[in-house]
Amino acid sequence: MKSFKRYVLLAFIFSSVHSVRASVTHYSIPEEMKEGSVVANLATDLSLDVKSLGKRKMRLDLIANKKYLDVNKETGELYVVEKIDREYLCTQTFTVCYLKMEVILENPLRIFNIELEILDINDNAPQFRRDAIHLDISESTPTGERFSLSNAVDPDVGSNLVKTYHLSESEQFTIEVQTGRDGSKFADLILKQTLDREKQAVHNLILTAVDGGKPARSGTASVIVHVLDTNDNPPIFGQSVYNVKIMENSPIGSLVIDLNATDLDEGSNSDITYSYSLYTSEKTQETFNLNPATGEITVKGLLNYEDFRIYDMEVIAADKGASSLTGQCTIKILVEDMNDNHPEISIKSFQSPVTENIELDTVIAVVSVSDKDSGDNGIVDLRVPDNMPFKLRESSDNYYELVVSEPLDREKVSEYDITFTVTDRGSPPLSDNETMTLELLDVNDNVPQFPQSFYTIRVMENNAPGALLSSLTAFDPDLHENQYLVYFIIEKEIANTSMSMLFSINPENGNLYALKTFDYEIEKEFLFHIEARDSGSPPLSSNVTVHIIIVDQNDNAPVIVSPWRAHGSVVEEKIPRSTDKGSLVAKVIALDTDSVHNSRITYQFLQVTDATLFSLDQYNGEIRTMRMFSYRDPRHQRLVVVAKDNGEPALSATVTIKLTTMETAVKAYSDMTEEPLEYDIFSDINLYLVIGLGLVSFLLLITILVTIVIKCQKPKPSKAAPPSRNSVISERNSTIADSTLVSNDAYWYSLFLAETRKGKLVVRQPLPKGSRYIVSSIPRGTGLTDTSDSAASTLQVGS
Predict the structure, then answer these.
(1) Backbone angles phi, psi at 430, to 5 degrees
(2) Torsion angle of alpha carbons 622, 623, 628, 630, nearest 10°?
(3) From its phi and psi, is residue 182 left (phi > 0), alpha (psi between -120 and 50) or beta?
(4) Cα–Cα dist 185/207, whole Å
(5) Among residues 300, 307, 304, which one has the least CA distance to residue 280?
(6) CA nearest to 302, candidates 247, 374, 375
(7) What is d(CA 184, CA 179) in angstroms, rounded to the nearest whole number?
(8) What is the CA radius of gyration of the chain?
(9) C-alpha to C-alpha distance for 500 and 509, rounded to whole angstroms
(10) Which pLDDT does position 786 carry in this prediction?
(11) Dihedral sign from CA coordinates of 168, 171, 173, 174
């Protein structure tokens, strides 16, 4: 404040001296004084009465566009209304800046001229016209070269102007401060070390301008030095040798490697083109494509590991500078194997067909496997299905033998489709297969088998000769001659009768025929064996038991054996007339040689003189009186009793009993009935029964003896070996083809006369010479006796 008063006082003294000469009052104040600050007391300095200032309408007329100052009419003080900026007020650079004003008073009118000098203070820092100064300097510029820099401007004056410049620390650059003709300061940039754009392409410097004020103010500007390139660097690859791996079968256009050579230069000096060197083979250039602009190497041709595994190439990178510089690298491309080749199977030998009884561990096939791939991709495994009776045995590297591991049976599996599957160990694994068909040849290892081990065949008696009884078919799972079966009956004699005379079997199909008519009452069953033999070598056979049961027919009528009588005669019985009611008169006994069912006999009256007099028990044939005789009853009673069996249709026999009643025997008979006597086993009825049974047994025995004698007179058939299938079939076919069957009586009588002449058979018409007739039965009444036991006779027509 003291300094401020000092400035004002000196200005006033100076103004007073000057006013004598020019009537102008001078004041000096520094710029930027605070609002309300008092500049001077005009009333005192101008010798004016303070009290009259208001009356005289004192006012301040300021020659400026702003009202910086004003006068206090009560005190006469000149004070600051608005801060004064010298640089704003005096736009032109002058050493002295004045603010002119007039103080006007009325009554009387007086005008005072006042000049207010605005003194500069260092309130402005130096400023550069541009915040950044850009310089382009070639990296080939020699040291000591100068480059002009823009100077800084400071709106202050005097000692507050720019005094000097400073440059930030730099190894390549320095500055030298120069003084212009007008006293202004500027700086030159000097290159003190050679530039290398590849090391540092841009240098960022800070230029600082400092004024002479106290305290000093400064301003800065960025100096950006761009180092211009020259082609002084060749292209450089990241590596001198590249080892690249690529999968075989990579698609065309697949990227192998992206070469990126770098050139530290810029512009056209860093534009690079790529090319193969002369040392790169044509095969490599045909397989890979090199992009000259980008350096990309891509697949151009087919890559096959098995054909070519390593590719070597040299690539040159050249820039586009005026004097082109080059760099080169070596690339080694390793083709990696991929599992692209299927394993291969080669059948070196295969034995087919083989017999089903082949020995275990016999070699069936020799197989080799291979795979063009490498590593795990080339390691292969061979296998066959586990559910087959074979196994693989490695004989040498990649050679395997297929051997029999289990017994073979053609009847279970006739052929095997053996699939050899080879699989490599790649990821994913590849496989291949080969299927071979092994055919098994049959051996005669199976005996013929009948569906049953025991056959029961029921044959109705009175069958026709040659009737089919049953078909006994065996099965042989073998093939061809091993399954061709021949059937024959195993010879067995029953009562000097061979089974082959009773039955015949078709050797081809096993059809069993009856050769004679069977009678249940004579033969009830037969038990024999039939053998089925195959045609293998050696032949195998099996047999089955056949049980022939003759089934009864109701072909025998009941025979009345009691009361006995001669054939066609009438039985006469005498009984006392005094016979009591319920007395046994007679007992009819009939016998039936049929089976039990057909031989069940019931008795009935067919005719009776008086139905009220006699009763007949239908089951036991007892005839009893139903009442006592009366004098009206006829003396002679005629009873006709029929004995009927239970067959269908029923057969019967009748007996006629003529009863005569006697008066004289009444008492004796009554006495006999009143007093029971001991049972007499030789009563008349029982005697008749015994005689009848004895007679029937005697006749049966005579028949059997006659049959045995006839059989003994015939030559016994020799027990030859069972006929072969071909001989049996040919004999049977020739017999059937050359013979004519005489199957009924009508056909018989059309060929032969009804009677014989002197024991010879007389024909009715000429018969072909050599013809043969099979007669199933000779009609009765011809006088010829069929003494053979067989059901059919053969008549050979001679010369």
Answers:
(1) -110, 150
(2) -170
(3) alpha
(4) 13
(5) 300
(6) 247
(7) 6
(8) 79
(9) 17
(10) 45
(11) positive
In the chain, how long is the greatest CA-to-CA distance? Answer: 236
Beta bridge partners of 71: 78
Query: Tokens standing for 355?
Result: 């017999």
Which two structure tokens, joined as six digits, stand for 767?
Answer: 């018969």
Q: What is the pLDDT of residue 12?
A: 41
What is the DSSP code string of 153-179? E-S--GGGSEEEEEE---SSEEEEEEE
Give the strand order in the sheet containing 468-471. Answer: 468-471, 511-514, 503-505
574: CB partners within 8 A, 6+ apart: 659, 660, 661, 662, 665
DSSP secondary structure letters along 47-66: T--STTTTTTT-EEEE-SSS
Q: What is the DSSP letter of 378?
A: G
Name residue, tokens 């399954």: 483
CB atoms within 10 A of CB 70: 15
> Chunked in runs of 10, what are the mean pLDDT values of the chain (799 residues)?
39 38 76 88 86 86 81 88 84 74 89 87 84 89 89 81 89 89 85 88 91 87 90 91 92 93 88 92 93 94 89 94 90 89 90 91 93 86 91 89 92 91 89 91 90 92 91 90 90 76 91 91 89 91 93 86 76 86 90 82 89 89 90 87 88 88 55 41 63 85 87 53 42 40 45 45 52 52 44 45
Q: What is the pLDDT of residue 666?
A: 41
Domains belonging to the chain, first-starting first, are 25-119 (2.60.40.60), 127-228 (2.60.40.60), 236-336 (2.60.40.60), 344-441 (2.60.40.60), 454-551 (2.60.40.60), 559-662 (2.60.40.60)
Please name the residue that has the structure tokens 């005009």.
42
Answer for the pair 621, 590: CB distance below 8 angstroms, yes or no.
Answer: yes
pTM across the whole model: 0.44
| Rounded Cα gap, residues 420 and 543, in angstroms | 45
Cβ neighbours for 651, distance < 8 A, ≥ 6 positions apart: 554, 556, 557, 558, 592, 644, 645
Residues 620/623/624/629 CA torsion (nearest 10 deg): 180
User: Given the DSSP bridges, would you call strands 185-191 and 77-80 parallel, antiparallel or unpaired?
Assistant: unpaired
Contact 708, 495 (CB under 8 A): yes
Q: What count of Cα atoms within 13 Å lies in the side-chain half-sphere of residue 386?
A: 0
List, as one string, the DSSP characters of 476-509: --S-GGGT-EEEEEEP-EETTEEHHHHEEE-TTT
Answer whether the bond into residue 215 is a cis peptide, omega within 30°: yes
Total count of residues recorded for the chain = 799
Q: DSSP assignment, residue 760?
A: B
